[in-house]
Design a protein that fits this description.
By secondary structure, this protein is an alpha/beta fold. The chain contains seven helices and eleven strands. It has one domain: 3-Layer(aba) Sandwich (Carbamate kinase).
Length: about 240
Amino acid sequence: MKFTRILLKLSGEALMEGNEQYSHRKLLALAQTIAAVRQQGVQVGVVVGAGNIFRARSANLQIVDRVTADNVGMLGTIMNAAILRDYLRAEGMKAKILSPRELRPLTSAFARDTALSLLQAGHVLIFAGGTGNPYFTTDSAAALRALEISADVLVKGTQVDGVYDKDPKRYADAVRFDRLTYDEVIARRLQVMDLTAVTLCAEHDMPLFVFDISDPANLLRAVAGEQDGTWIVKE
């Protein structure tokens, strides 16, 4: 395999199918694929968003302020993490949820040394609760956790097969990039991750691979270096 430790970033939408907030088919496929990656000897951390439950930035709540909305979104990520954890355990995986603050009985408090020990012991770790602070997205949380656990790569599963110069779902002539630098992402204003996450990865030389997770089996191919997508690197 190409990597020994990865951080997988999933959107909440990766758990959905049609009108199902939680798709048994999608969750089962994700869990089976993550288990297959783990069985290849790759240590796996996961950050999952909460877009299937609540999206703070687009919530039309005239009284609830941004801080409250972001905290609600962080709770949503813990809900998603708990669902994914049980699917992973059903596949025979050791799985644990870590969050910035302990929320018993679902999560334990994140500590880097604890996370590294659990990864080395074969656990799949799901990092929930974002960064623990408002105004930061789960993309930023993913970049932060990837750096803290010294991941080889941050792999971001999306609903398209990489990064395009414009929305491929709206424009038939959209062109996919095979490789970009973080400077190009910023200069072109490409909607890969939020600027905080992009800057964090760039400053600390964390490579990012963006690929299509609509077929969860693509994750196994991505880890093996056999999946189409877009690489984003410092230089």
